[in-house]
Amino acid sequence: MNALSPARLRLGVNIDHVATIRNARGGAHPDPVRAAQIVAAVGGDGITAHLREDRRHIRDEDLARIQASTSLPLNLEMAATDEMLDIALRHKPHAACIVPERREERTTEGGLDAAGQHNRLAPIVQRLSDAGIRVSLFIAPEMRQLDAAIRLGAPVVEFHTGEYAHAEGDARAVELKRLADMAALAARNGIEPHAGHGLTYDNVQPVAAIPQIAELNIGHYLIGEAVFVGLEHAVRRMRELMDAARG
Ligand code: PXP
Questions:
Q1: What domains are defined for the chain?
Q2: How many Å lie between the centroid of ligand 1 and the Cα of residue 192?
Q3: What confidence tens digit (pLDDT) does each residue in 123-168 have?
Q4: Is the pTM higher than 0.90?
Q5: Which protein residues are within 6 Å of ligand 1, measured from CB?
């Protein structure tokens, strides 16, 4: 274990796409609650779920069911809207990660503009924090956005790893360095850095090796792998790769 590392790199499993498959047929199967229970059984550290404005995957009733069915902490990804704030305050998840949301996007395509939306975000960060919910801001690994997160008093930032995941060769090395530099800067400012988006067996290890990063949130790839090898195996394999990178 690197001396700078948090005790253990946590793995939060985003189970949204179990609900995507369920919703494709409109019934109850496959149930994201069962996915949450499997994640808990195989050593996942948390469940991440994004309640989107259009409810395309996770639905309101799923949140309570997930919370009731596993003791793992729930990390609720939410847009900075009054509706989502009310829902978060009602459900009181362990953590809330504020993400940008555009209805027409297929996934969360970029980081939150924390710098440009300070006035919108400040009361939301405050009210979530007052309710004992650990707030995280999903931002690009950029100085301007990290500065904004510091000004907002967010205890956690999650760095969007999409640019890193999509880059190749030298460009990927540049993106990795950006992540490492911003993670170190976040930690120096008392902010716990997390990372996620587009992480796979093939690209997770360099990110997992960044010593300050405390948590990775991974969804789409794991649920896709689960179709072939089962969720249990997919989570275990990701865990092994993360541990090997950190060890
Ligand atoms: N973290 C956040 C804040 C996200 O919004 C998402 C989903 O876009 C993820 C992590 C997981 O990304 P992926 O599904 O690509 O693993």
A1: 10-246 (3.20.20.70)
A2: 17
A3: 999 999 999 999 999 999 999 999 999 999 999 999 999 999 999 9
A4: yes
A5: 14, 50, 77, 97, 99, 107-108, 138, 158, 196-199, 217-221
